[in-house]
Amino acid sequence: MHYWGYDGGWFGGLFMLIAMFLLWGGLVATGVILLRRFARPPDRRGDALKILDERFARGEIDKDEYEQRRAILRG
């Protein structure tokens, strides 16, 4: 079958297959890059408060130190 005046045979089919892989791979890579660039960073403040709560529950810090650090973390 002729496309644009060229009969590629098996080479043309192989070329089209490779081109499709490159096209879809490029689209997926672009999507991943955009998601990483514009995604919100994880909330580290929640992790810090959780660790602070655990340290207080284990008795590693007293109530005054707990409340002072909690106020700092909450801003």
Number of extended strands: 0
Helix content: over 70%
Net shape:
rod-shaped
Major pleated sheet = none
Strand residue content: under 5%
Oligomer designation: single chain
Q: Indicate the structural class.
A: mainly alpha
The tally of helices reads 3
Number of domains: 2
SSE order: HHH
Distance between the termini: 70 Å
Indicate the radius of gyration in whole angstroms. 29 Å
InterPro entries: SHOCT
Keywords: Membrane, Transmembrane, Transmembrane helix
Protein name: SHOCT domain-containing protein
Domain SHOCT: 47-73
State the gist of this model.
The protein is built from three helices and no strands. The chain is an all-alpha fold.
What does this structure look like?
The chain crosses the membrane at residues 12-35. This is SHOCT domain-containing protein. Keywords: Membrane, Transmembrane, Transmembrane helix. It comes from Amycolatopsis samaneae. Residues 47-73 form the SHOCT domain. The chain has three helices and no strands. The model has no long low-confidence stretch (mean pLDDT 85). α2 packs antiparallel against α3. The chain folds into two domains: 8-39; 42-75, no CATH class. The longest helix is centred in the N-terminal third of the chain and has 30 residues, at 9-38. With 75 residues, it is mainly alpha-helical.
Strands, helices and their partners?
Elements: H1 9-38, H2 44-58, H3 63-74
Helix pairs in contact: 2-3
Which structural traits does this protein have?
75 residues; mainly alpha; 2 domains; 3 helices; 76% helix; rod-shaped; transmembrane; SHOCT domain-containing protein; membrane
